[in-house]
Design a protein that fits this description.
- It is a single chain.
- The chain is mostly helical.
- The protein has a single domain, classed as lambda repressor-like DNA-binding domains (434 Repressor (Amino-terminal Domain)), CATH 1.10.260.40.
- It is built from 5 helices and 2 strands; from the N terminus they run αααααββ.
- It has a two-stranded antiparallel ribbon with strand order 1-2.
């Protein structure tokens, strides 16, 4: 079994979906996560993909596990292959 290639273009969409669902403004999310507002804006626009620390902080604020949050990057949803 081969590991699929990650679709990193999904990161922007994932970030925007979770931010929208949380109802947090960029300012509030920056305060809650410790990630700068500019970095969050860059994630939102796809100019920056973030690193492991970025996504760990976001998963904590959004109260979701990394596997679940980033499932679309791997073509999976909730750990099951699509």
């Amino acid at each position: 079994m081969t590991t699929p290639n990650p679709d990193l273009t999904q990161l922007r969409l994932i970030f925007n979906r979770y931010r929208y669902e949380s109802g947090l403004t960029f300012e509030r999310l920056a305060e809650a996560s410790g990630i700068s507002r500019q970095t969050l804006l860059n994630l939102s626009s796809g100019k920056y993909r973030g690193d492991l620390g970025t996504w760990l902080r976001l998963s904590r604020v959004f109260k979701v596990g990394m596997d679940e949050m980033l499932a679309d990057v791997w073509g999976t949803r909730a750990g099951t292959k699509l």
